[in-house]
Amino acid sequence: MIRFECDYTTGAHPKILEALVNTNGEACPGYGEDPHCERAGAMLRELCRAPEAGVHFLVGGTQTNATVIAAALRPHQGVLCVETGHINVHETGAVEASGHKVLALPAEDGKIAARQIDEYCREHYNNAAWEHMVQPGMVYLSHPTELGTVYTLAELEQISAAARRWKLPLFVDGARLPCGLAASDIALPDLARLCDAFYLGGTKAGLLFGEAVVIANPALNKDFRYLIKQHGGMLAKGRLLGVQFEAFLTDGLFLEIGRRETAQAMRLRDAFQAKGWPLFVDSPTNQQFPVLPNGAMAALEEKYSFEVWAKADKSHTAVRFCTGWSTTDADVDALIEDIRML
Amino acid sequence: MIRFECDYTTGAHPKILEALVNTNGEACPGYGEDPHCERAGAMLRELCRAPEAGVHFLVGGTQTNATVIAAALRPHQGVLCVETGHINVHETGAVEASGHKVLALPAEDGKIAARQIDEYCREHYNNAAWEHMVQPGMVYLSHPTELGTVYTLAELEQISAAARRWKLPLFVDGARLPCGLAASDIALPDLARLCDAFYLGGTKAGLLFGEAVVIANPALNKDFRYLIKQHGGMLAKGRLLGVQFEAFLTDGLFLEIGRRETAQAMRLRDAFQAKGWPLFVDSPTNQQFPVLPNGAMAALEEKYSFEVWAKADKSHTAVRFCTGWSTTDADVDALIEDIRML
Amino acid sequence: MIRFECDYTTGAHPKILEALVNTNGEACPGYGEDPHCERAGAMLRELCRAPEAGVHFLVGGTQTNATVIAAALRPHQGVLCVETGHINVHETGAVEASGHKVLALPAEDGKIAARQIDEYCREHYNNAAWEHMVQPGMVYLSHPTELGTVYTLAELEQISAAARRWKLPLFVDGARLPCGLAASDIALPDLARLCDAFYLGGTKAGLLFGEAVVIANPALNKDFRYLIKQHGGMLAKGRLLGVQFEAFLTDGLFLEIGRRETAQAMRLRDAFQAKGWPLFVDSPTNQQFPVLPNGAMAALEEKYSFEVWAKADKSHTAVRFCTGWSTTDADVDALIEDIRML
Amino acid sequence: MIRFECDYTTGAHPKILEALVNTNGEACPGYGEDPHCERAGAMLRELCRAPEAGVHFLVGGTQTNATVIAAALRPHQGVLCVETGHINVHETGAVEASGHKVLALPAEDGKIAARQIDEYCREHYNNAAWEHMVQPGMVYLSHPTELGTVYTLAELEQISAAARRWKLPLFVDGARLPCGLAASDIALPDLARLCDAFYLGGTKAGLLFGEAVVIANPALNKDFRYLIKQHGGMLAKGRLLGVQFEAFLTDGLFLEIGRRETAQAMRLRDAFQAKGWPLFVDSPTNQQFPVLPNGAMAALEEKYSFEVWAKADKSHTAVRFCTGWSTTDADVDALIEDIRML
């Protein structure tokens, strides 16, 4: 079975693993107060050109989203997000478990628009019964989105402006940010400048685990470590996060992995299109959503793992193929050849 | 200003007020453990033909909804509800503040359908990532709905069957139940038989305040008073609720008020239709939603209070007129005449 | 049965009831946005000499405590309170249900000391693992306390100074504030000056229900009505609160009731002491805690209701007698005579 | 600096690291549904002689505690725990953040007694205002405790019987269970038989991270994976937990590490006692709490890291020395020699 079902099927990229092995015997203070976390934090601040930003390392994405959102909102506030957003669909209500409503907005391509923020807020404050409704308190988006699509820098600037117009912190979920950096014109300093907080995801780009949160807004950064601890995100051997991110940020490894995941996915995309299979959504990143004839799907399932996404019609199904740091040329070649032969 | 903006503009129905005045000097135990609450509970059990049901008296609807839902759900569960449902829109996220997602379903007329429950649950358990999604844990509906529409007994039976098929408690918000009883073929014993919990609303039908919760499901009733207290719903002078509901339930006063509110609304409905104004939604109860030319709206606003509901088009607006226990024939006559003259 | 078990056994003081009856037919906007609430708010601001303060009317004390505390704290913060505090013991964990720990401090007389605030905060920030512990985020006290004791103005000033030293909002639970005003040198303007928020309790001083929250701190007042609604505390017929507080605040009725409750309790206190019964705690307000021989307790229980408070030793029990607005001279005379005769 | 400040200063035990390296390239399904987790679960069930138990692998202890407790309690319930319990002191209110009060009981040696459970419950249900108080809903203890002390099998049997008498699930925090197994007569099958849930901690015994939860009570196990996900504890590359626990459970490695940590600590204990330093608490496991003269403390701090625990008197301080999987004979020898020479 060749696995294209997600981007976290294998362990760590060799350079990450090597760093872990090499530092295994070092004795460090716990809870992220070790020299590795310190260095990784400094490197990330430098890459973001944000010398004052807070940097925190957490284990996983759901935890990170719930922690940042809980840190930002007062109890009567909710977070604006597209209907397909990860926090709205795939985190078993972790945001609601912290007491907050996800204010879901429609979107065809997984992207929120600046216009939607303005409209939602305007309608909220125009409503006579506004105090009976959840107050919009934050904007959440993911880049790339759950559908693999990306924002342009211009779009992000408009969203940031809209959020600031309504005094809403902007939070970018970067679980797949290395691919987003590879496939858009948005760079780390843009995120640090335009967002109140964002994270650079490691889990889906070759780390064993780990998400690096950058908090540009000092009010949000205040006491943030208390919130990490409360949400169960403060790893005892926090150095494991520091060690991995040091390696990840060294010599642009994170960019290289993002570019490689994306490039492999583009080869798959070309093969789907050459075969005449439509794309459920046109994604420029490491998730690809071809619409397959059910017969072809069944044939491919014998040799490849991938995710069933949505029923397209009686005889077609949208599926998701994901590439990861460990996807080999041979894996992709095999799949392309099998598609061609179908 | 003649007020049609809601059904809680005035104090209590004379019989309710009289009961409060007459019992004012009695010394009773607190927190609903007084003879009045006991008698009112027994009367309601009798009216529901549910001798084993739990009956609890709370102050208001938001509190009641949040308390019942929190009592029923485990942390990973959410409550199925139409998008326009009160808990989804107008309770400032009280359900989410208890940790639970409202699983909102589309509906044009404010009503949930048995089919939607089946579909949602089937899709949930068919999804490979089901444990990453909020589990449906309860069904909530209001009768009448936020749009004034009512369920038929046949519909409620189907919904109850669907809910039981998936082992979901069914909870009916009866904030305006007296009107629902007047305008549908559903009677109190049907609710006690088909629901796990429901409430008979007093606030919108002539009480100063008060909602009587009937809990037919013993598992849900267990320890319910702890939850009332935790949610701030245990009135110190609980006898005020008992006294009011005793009067409300005596000689069918609650039914009489429901019928009267509904009848006054039907007179308004006829006037809107006679004028040729379409109805935003066709409601058989005390909330009426005509679509007014903006000029007519402005003219009526000088003399009457009512609620702007939705913009219909550039020159028309859907509004809501509500009748209440204290709406007089003269109030309605005046409005009908003014409409005719416009 | 003559009831001394609590201060909410009967309905409303005649002047309060009269106001409710007289205004019953008025049609008002809902949710506290009516002229009565407006006037009562203005009267209270005037009495507090706090023209900028927010004033909000809620139904009950548990609800009020939970709402104010939730409004003030970030998720990692807790509220300092004595072990016997109402929020720590008698609200079924309503504060925890909002996500916050009650940081309980020992106290023999039910009173928190400025010194304890300083010590707790100093220790917290000196602890190496401070971020692993709940951060003190607020100071809560009740005046009078659960044990009937009161603060002096000097004590309150010290507490306020300590709270401000650590940037902790100070919140005073005034469920029995009318008695506190009668039995201490603290006046309403002192509370408005020294606290961030406090409330004047009506339920235990002759209203049907109702607590008037005064919020002196603008940051805490911001969006407070959203929180009231979320906590189920926004009464639909909010005018009932306004009407009652208008009467309560007129011509010092609240002070008169507080003084009267306290004076009746002092007569009981004298009788206990004349009998040679020790006081479990020496309370100058409407709650009295004599330690009774068990035989005397059993004898009194036949004619009077009162609360068993704590076992003193094998043959003695501390109990609580409460006077209320409706406690008559005859009630007190009868009890005094029966004590004398035992 | 030789680090005795905690038991998680270094990376993984060589056998654990080797397993991670050897399996790094395998492609597995995510979220704990891989063959390694399956095998490790089967091994643990076998070791517990609990073929029907649920086994789940989480990343850290705070997360595990919060998840198990949230899974077990209804909203009005709290968890009984000694005042020094980890959930009461060192998890930044994670239990309260899930809505539940920690019901803290006094204890000198960090241990809860069966008698305390009985007393607390009896008092709760005897109290007239019981519904106004948090209901005891679970018993939590740690073995070893925060103070390094352990339960005997007889004590655990009594506690289990008391918990079952009151229908309270019993949950054992085994963050340091390998040491507990080494230093008490309690074995894994005893825990599976006497508890509703417990966990075997890996983080403090040579894993990079990871806690294995065994849930013997099927009602508590139901839907548990939803709760893991909601609490951010479902590791994407869940195989990392399976791989580590496979190695940990093979040939008794977990027992060997527990024995070794404990043996090193006993050598320190002997040295403290030989020096005449009293023990703050007499611990038979890997945490040792000598009371040091402040001068000696200052001298040792130059070469060793350890934790200041409590001020004993003006000139003495209780401190904590922890041994871990990687504590070498040389580390211990050096410290012993330095103590002797002081």
CATH topology of the largest domain in chain A: Aspartate Aminotransferase, domain 2
Helix percentage of chain A: 40-55%
Largest interface: A-D, 54 and 54 residues
Q: What is the CATH domain class of the largest domain in chain A?
A: Alpha Beta
Strand content of chain A: 15-25%
Mean pLDDT across every amino acid position of chain A: 97
Indicate the CATH architecture of the largest domain in chain A.
3-Layer(aba) Sandwich
Q: How is the biggest beta sheet of chain A arranged?
A: 7 strands, mixed
Individual helix count of chain A: 15
CATH-defined superfamily of the largest domain in chain A: Type I PLP-dependent aspartate aminotransferase-like (Major domain)
Number of domains of chain A: 2
Specify the structural class of chain A.
alpha/beta
Distance between the termini of chain A: 18 Å
Please give the oligomerization state of what you see: homotetramer
* Coarse morphology of chain A: globular
- Name the poorly predicted regions of chain A: none
Question: How do the strands line up in the largest sheet of chain A?
Answer: 2-8-7-6-5-3-4
Number of strands of chain A: 13
Gyration radius of chain A, in Å: 20 Å
